[in-house]
Amino acid sequence: MGIRTPGHGPKRPNGAREAEILELLQRADDALTPREVTERLGNELAYNSVVTILTRMHTKQLLTRTPRGRAYAYAPVTDDPGFAARRMRSVLEERSDRQDVLARFADELSTTDADLLRQLLDPGQ
């Protein structure tokens, strides 16, 4: 459980607020300003905290931002499956033994997932 800090939302583990804000932005019909994010979070966080989180997420290339009035409006760079794919690619790129990693990954796929991957890699099959 989170610890309540006077005047602030409950203390959460690292990344939990980012995940919450990312999910909120993914559900939104359009890019949101920090004020809109703050309001949709039920004012759990101070405006400055939301700005800080959004700025960090933009720096991590999780969000795009476009000027809107005196603020920026933020939107996710991709959807949830896209973020999962980026994480998988990132792990692969960190490894020098790519072939071994991919081979192990393929060996551990279920038959259904292996068939799906074959179809995705060779659509004419």
TrEMBL record:
Keywords, alphabetical: DNA-binding, Transcription, Transcription regulation
Tagged with keyword Transcription regulation: yes
Ranges annotated as spanning the membrane: none
InterPro entries recorded: BlaI_family, WH-like_DNA-bd_sf, WH_DNA-bd_sf
Gene3D superfamilies per record: Winged helix-like DNA-binding domain superfamily/Winged helix DNA-binding domain
Sequence similarity: Belongs to the BlaI transcriptional regulatory family.
UniProt name for this protein: BlaI/MecI/CopY family transcriptional regulator
